[in-house]
Amino acid sequence: MLLSLENVTFGYLGVPTVENVSFSLHEKERVGLLGGNGAGKTTLLKLILGELSPDGGNVFVKSGLRIGYLAQSGGFESDSTVYEAMKEVFAEDERLISRLAETQEQFARAAEAERPALSSQIESLQKRIAARDSYHTDVRIRTVLGGMGFGEMFDQTVSTMSGGEKTRLQLCRLLLEDPELLILDEPTNHLDVKTLFWLEDYLLTLKGALLVVSHDRYFLDRLTSRTLELEGKKVTAYKGNYSKYKILKEERYKEELRAYEKQQEEIAKLQGYVDKNLVRATTAKSALSRMNKLERMEVLEKPAPPPAPPRFHFEYDERPYETVIFAPRFDLYAEEKLLLKDASFTLMRGEKCALVGENGTGKSTLLKFLKKESDKVRHAKFVKIGYYDQENADLDPEERVLDAFWGKHSRLTQTDARKVLAQAGLFAEDMEKKVKELSGGLRAKLSLAVLEEERANVLFLDEPTNHLDLPARESLEEGLKNFGGTLLFVSHDRRFIEALADKIVLIENGRLRVFAGNYAAFLEEQRARESAPAAKKEEKEKSASYRSREERAKEARTKQRTKEIESRLEALEAEEEALNVSLAECAADYRKVREITARLEELHAESDALYAEYETLI
Length: 618
Fold this sequence. Notes:
By secondary structure, the chain is of the alpha/beta class. The protein has 21 helices and 18 strands. Strand 6, helix 7 (193-203) and strand 7 (209-213) form a beta-alpha-beta unit. The protein is flat and about 110 Å long.
C-alpha cells in the first residue's frame, strides 16, 4: 500500500470541505478522482501531499514514497534550455557513469593489493547503471520531449515560453522522473489531440501508480481501472473506469433507494401494529416486542439523488440557405505569421463540423475569420452566427452576473432570465456576484446561457468544454445533438468530437484537409496515413529491381558489407562483455589484467573504425 486516508476531515473557517473520508492507494493502481467544480478535489490532493494537515483522522504515507505532482497551473521555471532542464533529472545517472570511468582508470593504475576493492566497486557501479538504464537517458529525454510537442524546441530557453508550454514541460519532467506515485491534476489542459494520444500510450507503460483528476472522459476510460468520486464531502469508490463508474453509480443509487423504501415499509408496518395492539392486554406483549425491534433498528437515510446537471437547449428562428458559409480561396494570417495558404472552406446547412489540428496551427483564428463576412467569406441569406469565445471576452468582469445575461437579452422578464441561468447551473447566490468572482466553470455556463438565448442558426464554438465538469459537458453534448442548425467547433475533448461531428476539417502543414465522416473513421484514416511511409519504403525497395545492373550490384555490396559490420560489432560487444566479467574475476592477477585491458583497447579501436565505416553506408 502506498497511502491511505482514515476518516479524514478538513475544512476552511470551520466549514468542512471533506468529511470522514477513507480510501487507500496501492502499487501500480490507476485511479481517477472525480468531483464537480469546487467539490474539494484539489484540497484532497493537498492532504495527500502533506501540504495541508487534516482537522480530524489520519493520512498514512509509505516511508520514502516518491510522489510526482502536476498542479493545474504548475508550470516549470528555469533559465536553462529545454533539453538541459530535462537532463537535470538524470544528474545521478551522469554521476554514476563518471564514477565508473574514474574507478576504471584507478583500477588500471592501482597496485595489485588495491585491485580487489576497486573491482568490487566497478561491479557495483555497473549493476546500478544497468538497473537505472543510465546509458539511454538521452533517448528517454528525446522520446518524451518529442511526444509532448517539443521536438523542435530543445535549444529554446524555458523562461521565454508560455504558461501552457511550461506546464507541459513540468509534465515532461515528471514522466522522466518516473515516481512511484504520479498525481496529475487536469493534465490534458494545453494538449492537442495528437499529444493526448501519445501521453496516454506513455502513461500505460508507467511502472508506478497513477492518481488523475481529469474532465477528459476518453483519457479516464483508457487509463483508469478504479474511480473515486468526491461528492457531498464524501468519497465513494467504484471499480472500473469512467464509463463503468457511471453505470455502477446509477445502480448503487437504485439499490440504496430500494433498501430505504423497503425499510420504510417495514417501519410503517411495525409501527402500525404497535399503535393498534399496545393497549390490548392480549396483544401488548407482541406489540412491545415490535416496539423493541423498532428501537434497535438502524434507520437508513434516504439516499440523495445525483445532483441535477445543467440543461442546455439551442433553438433558432429562421432557416438559412443551404450553403451556409463559402470561402473559395483565402490566405490566413495571425499578425504576420502565415497559417494557411490558398485555402478553401465550405459549410453546409445542418453540418456539425469539427476543426482539429495541433496547437498553434490556427483553429481559433480560422473560426474568427469565417465568422465575419468579407470579400473572402460569404454568408448565406438568413445566416445568424452565435459565437462562443473560450476566453469569455464578451463578459464584463465587473458586471453583476444577472445583469451580464439580462443586459444582452432584455426582452426576457427577470423571472425568465433567472430561470435560464438556473437551468445552466447558476444558483441564486451566483447571480448576485460579479462575473470576475465566478469560477471558470460558472463563467463558461454563463456564456453558454447567453449563447442559448441568441437563437442563432449557426453556432461557432471555440473550446466550449474548457472548465466544464463532466455532467455539464455531457449536458452540452446532448443539447448540441438536438440542435437542428449548423455547428462549427474547435475542441480538444475527443469524446465531445466523437459525439457530435459528422465532418472533420484538419489543419496541418498550412493546409486544410476535409474528411467527410465521423471522428472514429477520421482517426482510422489518420493511422493509415501515418503508416504510409513504411508502405512507401517497401514500394521503393520493390522498385529497386528495375534499376541498372551496376546500381543493383553496388547496393548488394553495400547491404552485404553492412551485414558484415553489424555481425562483427555484435561479436565485439559480446567479447567486450565477457572480458569485463573476466576483469572483475581476476583482479588479483596483474599480468592477466594487463592482457585483458590491452585487448579491450584493441576492441574499442576496431569498434570505432567499424562505426565510422557503418555511417558511410547507411
